[in-house]
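Quick check before the chapter quiz. The format below is the same one you will see on the exam, so make sure you can read both the input and the output lines.
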Amino acid sequence: MKQILLCVAVLSVLPAHALDGDVVVHDPSTIVSQAGHYYTYGTGNGIPVLSSEDGWTWHRSGSLMSAVPGGKVGAEVLARGGNNTWAPDIIHVGDNYFLYYSAPGTQPRSAIGLLVGRTLDPQSPDYRWEDGGPVVWSDGIEDSNAIDPGVLHGPDGKLWLTYGSYFGYIRLVELDPATGKRRFPGRAPVNIAINSEASIPIYRDGWYYLLVTHGSCCQGANSTYNIRMGRSRKVTGPYLDNMGVDMIEGGGKLFAASRGRHIGPGHFGLLDLGEGVQKFSLHYEADLDRGGVSVLDVRPLLWRDGWPVAGDNLVAGTYSIESARTGTVLELAVQGFPVGGFRQRRGGPPGSGIVGNAPPGAGSPSGGPPPEPQVSASILDQEPAQVAAKWPTRTGVRLAPAMLQAHQKWVISPVAGAGGYPGAPFFRITIAGTERSLTANEGELVAAPFTSAPEQLWRIDQLTDGSYRITPKAIPGMTATLALSAAGSSTPTLAKFDPASDRQRWLLRAP
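Here is the expected output.
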């Protein structure tokens, strides 16, 4: 148990923020959504439930077993395993939600039980969970430990379950999508990996990927959990890592490890938000900023060279906002001033009409070679106070070549209390050193004093290629969801996001 581009700013090398609210959980399931609400389930008495209205602020919402007749592990599951509820996983298939949970006794004697529900909303009159009995189990003697289920609904409509831990093999069985139960109980499970736990398969572009958790859990900041992976053209394996080592022989390419103040990542879950936005859920065995407890997190999922890459949440900082299509950057529509001041320019040849601005005696003799360039002191960064005196309080925005000028530097920072979306808060985007904030004004873009209005709150999703989609929370007078778009090399606008286009893809760079 328990990028094409990847061009992000240097500031984003560490996780930006933790989720908001009550996120204490161990062994979280894959996050699932229904009617705009998000749910995950974890290890603990009765299978604790965490829910969120936006995917950013989370709340503890009781236990799932309270909605099961009898309120506890079913008799058949108990007979095969024990009276524990660990490490669940959940999937939506047709009209049903299938939740699989670990019910270990004295390990490796354990069972994986099934619960079936029609809704995730505890306020619905249809909210209840039915005991589906044990799906797989281990007898305490065989080379397997039936815990840590992970479930995949494949592209061919087939349903698969992986399970197991360090007591033996990671195993795979096929399930019946109509009932959630094992489809061929007489067939032996397929052994696909060793030396791991918390396994789960995912699928992309003709490949099946098996993500597993290595290392030790449940020791707080001394835990050594990390996530590793292999891939196969067949769901049954063999799953090889990037070095060609089979996971049944201990192989596994590193996906995520401890960094900074978050120790022991484990229990991967895929959250596909569509239109090129994928994220993954996980827990850290210890969040040192929360006293070392185990917490839920959601991070961007990127893809590079046919492998998933663990992205990092955006950090607050100063960025240039560059169009992936045109290479131009977002700026205030004001008169710019070259960094370091205007340069001297020699006049053109006689009759050219090009007039020089060099002081007398600075040019070369008539017909002679130009003067040699002279290296001088480094030019300091341009500060808004140097150039902003004549900027209007409210102005338009445009795209222009990057020149490191003050009106091209944007501070991106989270807005407290404004809510968020899966894995991140809403941000404000403001010219550094000023209150001029990017604003969606009835389909047009302007920079105006920040008021926390919805049209000044921005959702910034990292796409699977590493670029970003930037979307206002709301647009006055409009109901459509539109994204920041490059209509040309100089004109930013708002438009419907097109996953096949670069117009709505942006790179955030440290200026």
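If your answer matched, good. The helical segments are 75-80, 384-387.
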